[in-house]
Specification:
single chain; 166 residues; alpha/beta
Amino acid sequence: MENKFGSIIEIARFIAISSSHSYLKKIVFTTGVFDVPHIGHPRYLSAAKKFGDFLVVGVHSDSLVKKRKGKNRPIFPAHDRMEFLSYYSSVDFVLELKNQEEVYNAIRFLNPYTLVVSETTEDVENNSQTMRTLFGDYTRIEVLGAQSSVHSTDFVKAMEKVETLK
């Protein structure tokens, strides 16, 4: 692979080839919106990377974000959010996830050594309890606390207030 973007199959193939040249590499997988960039994002991804050799980040598609966060989200389109994440040194691969089924399929297919979830995840489908129920038998699950006191949703709410004042 020439860059950090790819399908689940391309990423898995690259990791398998890389692993065949040395010891078995440990895949770490996490997902998220990663909309309005803030300091919590690189902190979270750096902490996640410590659990393995390759960090694969699934980015929720625009339609999935809209469904979960409302009609005014995302602020930035998926391709911009994905490119932004690709510049982090801790991130090895980035892929877009169009729906919840793709999130689950990516986890099943990549079979990560560690699945990292945030304790601040608000939606039921991606919270730590759901992931433990679905994948806890064969995947290690690490729950990371908030890496910043500020979240993308805080920025969006502040922008909405400013817009209302105009």
